[in-house]
Amino acid sequence: MFRTNFSLKAICSVLAVICLGAVAGCSATYQNHGYVPLDEDLAQIVPGVDSRATVDEVIGVPSTAGVLSGGDYYYVRSRVRHSGMFRPQVIDRQVLAISFDQQNVVANIERFDLRDGNVVPLSRRVTDTSVQGKGFLRQMLGNLGNINPADFF
Q: How much is the pTM?
């Protein structure tokens, strides 16, 4: 007969470690992304008085700005919860928008959060290619009829 030297205490210890590992693997982790200035720093900026240079000095240049050069400033911060095998969930998002007029003077300061946002569905558009399903030789030999001898001279 096969005989083991494992005690009940050792088996219970191993099972306890496995259970703790499983529970720890399912606990939520949080990731913070981005930066939004504090309200104390924003209180130093007065719309209609301060300029773009003042905003750069007081709260810093954002990582996101308007599309055009000299566009508005957007500060974005997100907090995402990851729970085991489940899809990550955004639990907090704040957007601070500072708009400027034509003279680069602060026109407006607005703060938005996750409750103010709208869901924007992302669409994926793929351009179909005519080379799909064609081998390398077929692609190369297919170009032989497109050669114009006048282009060589």
A: 0.59
